[in-house]
Each structure stands twice: as C-alpha cells, then as structure tokens.
Amino acid sequence: MKFYVAAYVREKRRVKDICRSLELLGHKITVDWTKDEAPKLKDRSIFSKDVRRVAVHGRAKYVELGAAIASFEKNRRPLIYALGKTSDQTVFYYHPVVKRVKTLDDIICNIRQSKEKTRSTKQSEVSHE
Asked: Which of 2, 108, 113, 129 has the fewest CB atoms in 10 Å of its CB?
C-alpha cells in the first residue's frame, strides 16, 4: 500500500519515524519530503487513487489534506487519517472521510480490517457464482 505523509515541517523527525515504521511493514512512501524531496501538487504520485494518507498534527499539511479530500470525493480514494491529537484549527479534520486516530497502530489495525473485509467480500462473491 502507498502512503503520503503530510505534516508540519517541524514534525520532520516524527514523519521519518512514521515512514520507517510503514516501510518496515511493507508499505511504500510515495514522496519522502523529509529527504528534501519537495512534493508538488501536480505530482500525480502524491494524489493517485491507490495512495492512503497520514495527516500528522500541525498546520502546514492543510493543502495536502484538502487535496486528499477532493480526491476522495472524485475517486472514492484515498483513505485519509488524521494522526495524533485532533485539532479544532480546521474543519478538514471533521470531514466525514477523515478518520481521526491516535496512533500509527490504529492505522495499521484499520488497514488489516479493510484487507480482511475485502478478502471476505471476494470469497463471498466467488461462492455465489
């Protein structure tokens, strides 16, 4: 699964830890801006249909979060997570497609549940044929 991790620049160390944890679980980071890769809004890898996003607490990620919500409205993807302390500084956190979670483990658990649900649905479709 692909992730784009958006965060306030001061959260760089935390983002590196999140990226490392996700990669150890076999996930791919589309753009690692902590390595001075400046993501551009026109970069399709950030906003492609198969990317899940993790939004970390902080102010500088609202453009990415808004773009992710717009992408979801159009494509029914990506799944969007607001990780950490939720904030009342923006209505984006309260949009129905944003899942507010406290830990990275909550995201991993949600992904596993989604995979199991998808697998179960596919098995059910096969057995009805």
From this structure: 129
